[in-house]
Design brief:
The chain is an alpha/beta fold and about 280 residues long. It contains ten helices and eight strands. β3, α3 and β4 form a beta-alpha-beta unit. Bound molecules: 2-phosphoglycolic acid.
């Protein structure tokens, strides 16, 4: 059973005081509730230390929005994994589309970032690896090809006997569905069915690379214009194990609504529709 996860990635929004107030409210409002999923927020790096203090001892995990691929060295302006771990970060987003491309983060860099996260077995940090095709790639019918190529580079030589691959979280984030993102939108946002199909494809691919058991264990989140109104339709899809929320995680009310919708959805009886079996050859 995969435990779902809902992450608020707050990008470069909120001032220091606003981020602290957001975290304080979140801790307070969630304290007496129980959620059948994990919850985390990822403020920008400069706010991590302060937000960590507010989240300490609560059910909310702390996440970072990126990490440098090297342990240390002459890398001005970068943040090292050891620093994030000292702050008590539980999750690290790598390969977000807003960090790729014009900020020249390549699939090879994302691979190194994943490796550096997984090396730290003694301190659990969960990498959230983002993948997603652009609008043009979808129009050209290349979505799956692009995702497969990217995943194969990112996971290249990440061996299951050496690393806890099952601990990795993947976020499928079609670049064209990200609100206010750098890619033009398609006329329709990613429907839950389209997202589910892509998640199924990613899971099959992981099963091919790592075997059925690991393929079944890896959590795959959906991200791109998630809000309270579409939370339940996404979470009803059998391959969607949670959400990576951007803009709707900046206002506390909207993030709390998403959490409530998620909890409501998970108390519904399971769909009777048979889940497609993963038929893969290793
Ligand atoms: P959005 O962002 O929810 O604002 O579309 C998602 C993301 O960039 O992860």
């Amino acid at each position: 059973m995969r435990r779902p996860l809902i992450v608020g990635a707050q990008k470069l929004y909120l001032g220091l005081d606003q981020a602290i107030e957001f975290a304080r409210r979140l801790v307070e409002e969630t304290r007496d509730k129980s959620y059948p999923f994990d919850i985390a927020i990822c403020p920008s790096h400069i706010k991590l230390a302060l937000v960590a203090q507010v989240l300490a001892g609560s059910k909310i995990g702390l996440g970072a929005q990126n990490v440098h691929q090297e342990e240390n060295g002459p890398f001005t302006g970068q943040v090292a994994i050891s620093e994030l771990l000292e702050l008590g970060v539980h999750y690290i987003i790598v390969g977000h589309s807003e960090a790729r491309g014009e900020f020249s983060e390549s699939s090879e860099d994302v691979h190194k970032k994943l490796q550096i996260c997984l090396k730290r077995r003694e301190k659990t940090v969960t990498p959230i690896v983002c993948v997603g095709e652009t609008k043009q790639e979808r129009i050209d019918g290349k979505s799956k090809e692009v995702i497969e190529k990217d995943i194969r580079i990112i996971f290249n030589n990440i061996r299951r006997d050496e690393f806890d691959v099952e601990n990795v979280v993947i976020a499928y984030e079609p670049v064209w569905a990200i609100k206010g993102g750098k890619d033009d939108k398609l006329t329709e946002p990613a429907s839950p069915e389209v997202a589910n199909e892509m998640h199924f494809f990613i899971r099959q691919l992981l099963s091919k690379i790592y075997g059925h058991k690991i393929g079944e264990q890896v959590r795959i989140l959906y991200g791109g214009s998630v809000n309270a109104a579409n939370t339940q339709p996404y979470l009803r899809q059998p391959e969607i194990d949670g959400l990576l929320v951007g803009s709707a995680s900046i206002k506390i009310e909207s993030f709390l609504q998403i959490l409530d919708k998620g909890a409501e959805r998970m108390s519904e009886p399971q769909s009777t529709e048979a889940r497609k079996e993963l038929v893969v050859s290793n």
